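In this supplementary section we document a worked example of the pipeline. Step one takes a protein sequence of length 127 as its only input; no multiple sequence alignment statistics are reported here. Step two produces a three-dimensional model, which step three serialises into structure tokens for compact storage. The input and output of this example are shown verbatim.
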Amino acid sequence: MDLALWISAGLLAFVSFFGGLTKTFVPRQKLAAAHGGGWTGDATTGFVKSLGVLELLAAAGLSLPALLDIAPTLVPVTAVCWTLLMIGAMITHGRRGESALVALNLVYLALAVFVAWGRFGPAPFAG
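The serialised model returned by step three reads:
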């Protein structure tokens, strides 16, 4: 179970890190032209960059607290926050008729729920 939780959190951190880098540093107009990025054309630059920074923080929160053994409870807390972010992403992509992206966000949501459940419940970090 512990290994599955580490892999799930690591995968989410990876996705979050690269999504955050993209949203933070790639111009919004370029994101809007990319597959799956059309929603950024309807959002402000500040909003997109803010989401990017939140995703970078999520990448850190899903991995660093446990790796450094400093406040590892932040891992499941971050997973809960990631769940909320994925619900928003699913709503956004659903409104745009992007069912494949809704399904992908559902996978990320399921992984985040698994990490939150596992680290709050049966496999917490020893502290």
